[in-house]
């Protein structure tokens, strides 16, 4: 009997502090930097984002998202035998955020580790958990994307600080005789490190290099649309499906124009795309599970539908997961 991994519950968490584009414009104006709601909406589709308060970490958002996903699946943390957290904004250099999440959920013993693939992190994490479940050793996994990108933003750089937000999304992935995840496809090309990175690192008790995000937006844009089409087609081919079989495209929520470009290339109408970038901004590894959970809880995503999850991010990394929900 073929063993598959199937999503049985979703959950998410947004910190309560919501900043509109007008709030961001006011904040930047204090530094003598100009931006506007019109510019941000037209170029990105973003209208608002959520930022954590001081003292709130990625693990806090991850735990709340995980609790919602566990409740939706009808299980408890004690039933889980794997925890994977995708994040580029971990609570600490080490240990992993996943082990901190495990402890905050009040359990111990199961393996817990982080995956770092920036905005593709959740796709990578889902791919790893799917492989571990299909291999037979794991029965129920918590797969989480959690980020506090507000901590990495340079509020003197209007080209990047308006784009990102904080949040977390989670799924429970369970072994099943029925699919489930149909195909996964992940890639990386490290030669593009410089177009999107936080170059600093910790050494000898100091941060060496800049600890703030920097990005060549146009280079990212050009790469993103191409690889997102390629990886979606690769997953479809592996599963013997076609673009028209997709009920919902759930792309990484970086920019509405990247999502529109990808949908156009796959000949999918925007009515088949889950869009949350307007309210969440780009939450990196959290964006896909956040969008998935919002699609599920709004009643748009229904059991039995075919979903294409796909992401692209720093590294460069990119990938997709095709699944029957
Ligand atoms: N407000 C007002 N003006 C701005 C702002 C701002 N927030 N940011 C930039 N501008 C100005 C620039 O200074 C420039 O002015 P100039 O012509 O006088 O020099 C002008 O707007 C155009 O700037 P561009 O950088 O050329 O603008 P572009 O149309 O490329 O849009 C953007 C920038 C939105 C970043 C776009 O390149 C983009 O979406 N790239 C994709 C990157 C992305 O989404 N990254 C997310 C992370 S990556 C990931 O998740 C995969």
Q: What does this protein structure show overall?
A:
By secondary structure, the protein is α+β, with helices and mostly antiparallel strands. The chain has two domains: 4-177, Thiolase/Chalcone synthase (Peroxisomal Thiolase, Chain A, domain 1); 182-324, Thiolase/Chalcone synthase (Peroxisomal Thiolase, Chain A, domain 1, 3-Layer(aba) Sandwich). The protein contains ten helices and 15 strands. The strands form five sheets. A five-stranded mixed beta sheet has the order 1-7-6-4-5, sandwiched between helices. A four-stranded mixed beta sheet has the order 8-15-14-13, sandwiched between helices. It has a two-stranded antiparallel sheet with strand order 2-3. Strand 10 and strand 11 form a beta hairpin. Helix 3 (58-73) crosses helix 4 (97-104) and helix 7 packs parallel to helix 8 (256-265). The protein is globular. The model has no long low-confidence stretch (mean pLDDT 97). Bound molecules: acetyl coenzyme *A (ACO). Acetyl coenzyme *A binds next to helix 2, helix 6, helix 7 and strand 14.
């Amino acid at each position: 009997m073929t063993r598959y991994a199937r999503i049985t519950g979703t959950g998410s968490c947004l910190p309560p502090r919501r900043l509109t584009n007008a709030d961001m414009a006011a904040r930047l104006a204090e530094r003598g930097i100009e931006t506007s709601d019109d510019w941000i909406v037209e170029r990105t589709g973003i209208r608002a984002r959520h930022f954590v308060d001081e003292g709130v970490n990625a693990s806090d958002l991850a735990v709340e998202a995980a609790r919602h996903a566990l409740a939706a699946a009808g299980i408890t943390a004690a039933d889980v035998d794997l925890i994977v957290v995708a994040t580029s904004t971990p609570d600490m250099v080490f240990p992993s955020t996943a082990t901190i999440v495990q402890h905050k959920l009040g359990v111990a013993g199961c393996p817990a580790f982080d995956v770092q693939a920036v905005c593709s992190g959740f796709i990578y994490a889902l791919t790893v958990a799917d492989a571990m479940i299909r291999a037979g050793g794991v029965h129920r996994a918590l797969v989480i994307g959690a980020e506090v990108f507000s901590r990495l933003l340079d509020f003197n750089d209007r080209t990047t600080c308006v784009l990102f937000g904080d949040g977390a999304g989670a799924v429970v992935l369970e072994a099943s005789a029925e699919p489930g995840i149909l195909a996964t496809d992940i890639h990386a090309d490290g030669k593009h490190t410089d177009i999107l990175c936080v170059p600093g690192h910790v050494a000898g008790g100091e941060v060496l290099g800049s600890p703030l995000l920097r990005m060549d937006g146009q280079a990212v844009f050009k790469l993103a649309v191409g690889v997102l089409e390629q990886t979606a087609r690769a997953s479809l081919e592996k599963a013997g499906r076609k673009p028209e079989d997709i009920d919902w495209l759930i792309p990484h929520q970086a920019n509405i124009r990247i999502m529109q470009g990808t949908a156009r290339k796959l000949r999918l109408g925007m009515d088949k795309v889950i869009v949350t970038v307007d309210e969440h901004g780009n939450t990196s590894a959290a964006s896909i599970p956040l969008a998935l959970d919002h699609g599920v809880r709004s009643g748009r995503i229904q059991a039995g539908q075919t979903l294409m999850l796909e992401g692209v991010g720093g590294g460069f990394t990119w990938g997709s997961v095709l699944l029957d929900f």
